[in-house]
Write a structure and sequence with these properties.
about 15% strand; N-utilizing Substance Protein B Homolog, Chain A; 8-stranded mixed sheet; Alpha-Beta Plaits; binds S-adenosylmethionine; cytoplasm; rRNA processing; transferase; alpha/beta; RNA-binding; methyltransferase; 4-stranded antiparallel sheet
Amino acid sequence: MKNKKLQGNVRDAAFSILWAVENKQAYSNLLLHQTIQSYGIADKNKGLLTEITYGTLQHQMTLDYYLEPYLKGKIEPWVKILLRMSLYQIVYLDRIPAHAAVHEAVEIAKRRGHGGVASVVNGVLRSIQRSGVRSFNTISDPYEKVAIETSHPVWMIKRWAEQFGLEKTREMALENNKTPSQTVRVNTVQTTPEEVIDMLESEGLDAVQSKLVPECLIVTNGQPAKTTTFEKGFITIQDESSMLPAYALQVGPNMEVLDMCAAPGGKTTHIAEKMENKGNLFAMDLHKHKIKLIEENAARLGHTVIETEVGDGKKSVERFGTGKFDRILVDAPCSGLGVIKRKPDIKYTKKEEDFARLQEIQLELLNQAAQLLKPDGIMVYSTCTVDSIENRGTAEQFLKDHPEMEKIQVSLPETLGLKNTGFVQVFPQDFGSDGFFIAAFRKKATA
Ligand SMILES: C[S@@+](CC[C@H](N)C(=O)[O-])C[C@H]1O[C@@H](n2cnc3c(N)ncnc32)[C@H](O)[C@@H]1O
């Protein structure tokens, strides 16, 4: 393939991202920002670029299923990517006329390859356009059918089906292919939701208060990260589910608090707000470059209560000693299966063998947290995944290993209306937010 980039061209930019995701294991969300800059994509076209890139990734296996009958013989990998993204536009984007998608595909094929490739691309796309896409009804295996229909690997569908049932799995997988909503958290130390709605409106954005978490606003139009309201520290960009751990922690002013896996600081800054910026809040993370992000966020929001610390949570007793904290959040590294809607490439890069290793790390971090906690102190374990082994499995194993700890009800905003059975698993389809897990523990006063 010739590496002929066409400045300002949305489809060429989308193609280059999809190529890098498939061949260089690049992350689509990071690459999208870089590509917008390097291609000089106009503001009015950024939405379309995002839609084509994420949409193609989200529906990749379905698109391959549609393409398969037309791809006789060997086809170069880059041509397949071009076909996928063009077919995505034809099948899923009503506002793009099919002839425009085919025309753009042919132009890219000519520029990056040659006339022969362009005529194959033209032929395949026009044939599918004429005959329509094939049905899923011929797939007899029920797991494979859901996997192809929703574009998730078969092992993932089987694993979820065993844990939650096939119907719930299908609902979740379909939800994962929707566009995520944009939510922001109001910095309640500085302002109120009503004031922020007015500020955002005066900058041309539309926002409404969420019915679930009181300090959460849903932005229905515009880019909140580009506003003065954001720059001045009145809001944080955060998914609504990620706002729940600070509630579960039952944290208040003048406490000694540790956020053990803190970067980039979304939850640290929320905890600081619940502490009314009074007390001591240590924000630890293993990676130095990520610590900088916490510091930038804290400075922007005006949170002076936060002290950052590069360190390994697995060695935090060495650092802090035992019985030091009133509250500890362990927002642990996890498989991230709850955020597929935002990072569709996770579906294809995760491997089932990653899971056992993750539970080991999670248990090591929780084991340290238990020792760091004061008697009667509360710790919260959270993940952004939907997997019973890492979630309930890790939480139950932790309780077995630590008789000095007891499970407590997860404290949540009442507006959420979640039936609280001790551990809370939010599914992506419950509220349209990320999939998330929360468990809360208290150290027995006699411990
Ligand atoms: C789920 S993310 C945390 C997100 C963060 N709490 C927020 O809300 O913005 C998990 C974090 O754990 C960090 N991490 C991984 N292993 C760690 C360890 N052994 N000790 C401390 N932090 C670790 C990663 O660098 C990553 O930033």
